[in-house]
Amino acid sequence: MSEELFYSTDPAFCPHCKHIPCICNRLGSPKKQSEPVRIRFVKNAKGSGVTRVEKLSLHPQEKEALLKKIKKALGCGGTIKDGALEIQGDKKPRLQTILEQEGYKVRVI
Question: Out of 26, 84, 99, 105, which residue is the most buried by the measure of CB atoms under 10 Å away?
């Protein structure tokens, strides 16, 4: 039986090279993302809404770090739901600039 790891909850585990810590430097690299990140505004029943950032291929802890950076830059609240970042209010243009500075391709919907 092979002793190679195929899954781990350790944040340093890389699914590409299967090492802890990553030796291929592909873990969480935004520039190697194949499709653009989508930004859209979703309005809820109460009339308020959130700006969602979808299709991010990042490790959950890296999403938390990116969310923290975005919240600080925009001065608003936010959370992660269903793998997408949710930022309070309609912040599409400012969010697009921040993500492009981070090296992501962005598509505003």
Answer: 99
Q: How far is CA 22 from CA 44, 50, 89, 103, in A?
A: 40, 34, 36, 21
Closest CA to 89 of 76, 70, 106: 76
Question: pTM of the entire structure?
Answer: 0.69
Summarised one tens digit per residue, pLDDT across range 39-73 is: 999 998 787 899 999 998 888 888 999 999 999 99
Q: What is the CATH number of the domain that holds 40?
A: 3.30.780.10
